[in-house]
């Protein structure tokens, strides 16, 4: 005979802005009561949190989880200020390992030997340009593939081009679909290796108060996550996105956005339908109204008519569309399609928006799924390529004022999977590195950032799932630097501790 778990009481906790502590009562994974701190019901499992602060658990609304987990185990090129510095990092790796894998480059499954894999380069702000010859000169015939920070570009040497059967010009650069295809190929590592990396990445996310992610990994993601959950993954809730090439399969499986996936232990749901219609700022492929300084307006990879047909089909099938649109022309195309279809959905990124389009976000009921840390990572590239028009780049305040719903994320590995980094960027428009705020008029408040990071939950409420982050400081009043690196004491998903930084589990009585 099974017995219900005892009531869990998070004792002596405060919500942001409050001074008097209270107790949060949890039964069967749901918040059932918020009561006076003196109440200690008999038979309950009581965890005394000594006046710490509780907020709704945080979500990262845009992640590529496998790529994020892999990035931590690849060669970090994020500090390279030029193509020359990037190849110097690769030269050092080759000199140290002779091209063999030392745990940082990463073997590619199914190939003899190894391929050196680097991540995080930003050539949009380099004074020099990548080239095939430059990378060939330092790799001694060892295949090398370097993935840009935005995932839209891969820089390869001749040996990698030959190994993977890709054609490159003198630049050595693959962009957009060819880059995505090679990135997927580079990720074909043993499941046991990748799943272990994902578990570690998820544990780190839980330690930052994260309770859930929307995973837009470019694969048939449902089965990947079922395998992980069957293998013991339990740190996060996951909404697994679907891409158009897999929509027919999803429909045959009866999948719809927001529905629980059987055998997912209550952690796995169907995510949105992800549609990419333009490129990125770093690769200068974001589709823009005005030309870039070097010429060209970027790429529109899905026509407005094609997008409209896809949105209508998605809506009719129970899928929420999530349209990747970075350039202002791409956002215009996406909004046109949503308006004509008469449906709601998400625009992923919304990095650069025409002034006349802000109001349409609110009027059409569009969720702007935005990544505030990109505003700081890309400020120089935005200034260089969008010039005076950059005042409408990463326009969080303008979107919110127009009535859009904001959903904050990281686009990890493009930025770190850490909601406090995102919220700090959203509220200060600064990396707190002495450079000052970038277009501070587009900042939002901390309260707004917290709501946008917790699926609209403004506080702990009775009846909500017990997805909770416990903090060491009041997020509404802590200094900027404390807020940006907020110390998290514990995280709970469905009333179960996924991170315990204060010995809460062992101290329960």
Sum this structure up briefly.
By secondary structure, the chain is of the alpha/beta class. The chain has helices at residues 65-71, 83-97, 132-139, 158-164, 177-186, 191-206, 221-230, 247-252, 304-316, 328-341, 358-364, 373-377, 379-386, 396-401, 419-428, 446-452, 480-484, 504-507; strands at 8-14, 22-27, 30-36, 45-56, 58-63, 75-76, 116-121, 144-148, 153-156, 173-175, 210-215, 237-242, 268-276, 321-325, 345-349, 366-370, 405-408, 468-471, 488-493, 496-500.
* Uncertain parts: 107-113
Number of helices: 18
Query: Averaging pLDDT over every residue, what do you get?
Result: 94
Looking at how many chains there are and whether they match, the oligomeric state comes to: single chain
Helix-residue proportion: 25-40%
Shape: globular
Q: Which strand order do you get reading across the main beta sheet? A: 5-11-12-13-14-15-16-17
Q: What is the end-to-end distance? A: 24 Å
Structural class: alpha/beta
User: Nearest-angstrom radius of gyration?
Assistant: 23 Å
How many strands appear in the DSSP assignment? 20
Query: How is the biggest beta sheet arranged?
Result: 8 strands, parallel
Share of residues in strands? 15-25%
Could you explain the architecture of this structure?
By secondary structure, the chain is an alpha/beta fold. The chain is 31% helix and 22% strand. The chain is built from 18 helices and 20 strands. An 8-stranded parallel sheet has the order 5-11-12-13-14-15-16-17. Strands 3-2-1-4-18-19-20 form a 7-stranded mixed sheet. β8 (144-148) and β9 (153-156) form a beta hairpin. It is globular, with a radius of gyration of 23 Å. The model is unreliable at 107-113 (pLDDT under 50).
